[in-house]
Write a structure and sequence with these properties.
The chain is α/β, with parallel strands linked by helices and 376 residues long. The chain has helices spanning 21-38, 49-57, 62-76, 124-143, 166-175, 238-254, 278-291, 302-316, 335-352, 361-375, and strands spanning 2-10, 16-17, 43-48, 80-85, 93-96, 102-105, 154-157, 180-181, 189-191, 196-198, 208-210, 224-226, 231-232, 263-264, 294-295, 322-328, 356-358. Helices cover 40% and strands 17% of the residues.
């Protein structure tokens, strides 16, 4: 079987928002979840929990209350909620202007969990264990009232930042009773002002276990089960990216609809509130071709997403079931992207039929447990 897990890094813009948090996250997520339900896709919301806690700590409770209500409603409609943590929120200052737009300020070194040195002198593993346990308890207390079988069991690192200090982080995940990680983007290399990622040497299997002592370079017989984000490694994607660039070039020369961004990321200073120019978008696309690796973040090019997925499945599908995640961000979605998502899923189903199924992370664990029981 081929199991596709649609996932959503459910978070606001981490630099700041041009409109209210409700507009950035809750209203956009309504549209995403509605589109998913039209084509029978269960979406897993990886909720940025530390953001909610920080808002409450600073006395801004309206936004967390709206989020909690949406998470409950999502669960009743067959979606899933799991843990996503950006630890910089613990020391983030939030300022608002008269229209409700927000801006965030924090020490950049606090972005990665593996860089944290708590003030009380505790070790990183202890800090992470407390954090993961708190996250699990928070979500289960919130959502088991809606579904008594709900379990917080999967983790996605903020910004995919499970480096550095993987041993301590994964030891803490195991101790906190998480069973699945979905932070690895095979082949990704990223070096920014806040994040440093190198996934070039992760195992080439579709799925594997990560053990604290083995790290990311070696698959283990036990540990945390990795469901990676679908990605093509260096050079694998260059041709399909080039074809996508040519399609977009023709499209932009004939008709262009730049979309307005609702906020801005950590990696940028606050830009003027205006759509990205066509030229800027095309330059960004050309940079992707030169880079050579590709992560499937839901976009408007359904053909590119489909080609990448077929290539990924052909490379990884063996005798065992294959699990992979497709990622998106509610804050960055718009109608053309949601239409492309639906077309992409319809195309996958037409190609793979009953061999492919869209599931949640909770369902993935249930399937693996049932299979393990059958083999005993």
């Amino acid at each position: 079987m081929i199991y596709i897990l649609y996932s959503n890094d459910y978070e606001v813009f981490l630099g700041g928002n041009h409109v209210t948090e409700r507009e950035v996250l809750v209203e956009t997520s309504k549209k995403v979840l509605s589109a998913c339900e039209e084509v029978d896709i269960p979406m897993t919301l990886f909720c940025d929990l530390a953001c909610l806690w920080r808002y409450r700590e600073l006395g801004y409770s309206e936004f967390p209350i709206a989020v909690e209500q949406q998470l409950k409603e999502a669960l009743t409609h067959g979606h899933d909620v799991q843990a996503h943590i950006h630890p910089h929120w613990f020391e983030t200052n939030i300022t608002f202007n008269e229209s409700g737009a927000s801006k965030y300020d924090f020490e950049l070194s606090k972005f990665l969990l593996g860089n944290w040195t708590p003030e009380n002198g505790s070790e990183l593993k202890e800090f992470c264990t407390d954090l993961f346990s708190r996250s699990k308890q928070y979500l289960e207390n919130l959502l088991q009232a809606i579904d008594p079988t709900y379990e917080c069991l999967a983790y996605r690192a903020g910004g995919y930042g499970i480096q550095p200090n993987i041993k301590q982080i994964f030891s803490a995940l195991i101790e906190s009773r998480y069973t699945i990680d979905s932070s690895v983007v095979p082949g990704m290399v990223l070096d920014s002002n806040v994040n440093h990622i190198d996934f070039t040497e992760v195992p080439e299997q579709g799925n594997y276990f990560i053990a604290p002592d083995s790290g990311l370079k070696q698959a283990s017989a036990e540990g945390i089960f990795e469901i990676p984000v679908l990605a093509l490694r260096q050079g694998q994607a260059r041709w399909i990216l080039a074809k996508s660039f040519l399609r977009k070039l023709v499209k932009h020369l004939t008709k262009s609809k730049p979309h307005r961004h609702l906020g801005f990321p950590i990696q940028l200073e606050e830009p003027k509130q205006k759509p990205h120019s066509v030229l800027k978008q095309l330059i960004d696309e050309l940079k992707l071709v030169k880079r050579g690796w590709y992560m499937l973040e839901l976009g408007t090019d359904a053909e590119l997403m489909l080609e990448a997925t077929k290539k990924y499945i052909d490379y990884h599908l063996r005798d065992d079931d294959l699990y992979f995640s497709v990622s998106c961000h509610s804050k960055s979605t718009y109608p053309e992207l949601l239409d492309a998502m639906k077309n992409y899923h319809h195309s996958l189903k037409s190609i793979y039929g009953d061999q492919l199924k869209a599931i949640t992370y909770g369902e993935a664990q249930a399937i693996m447990k049932a299979k393990e029981k059958d083999t005993k």
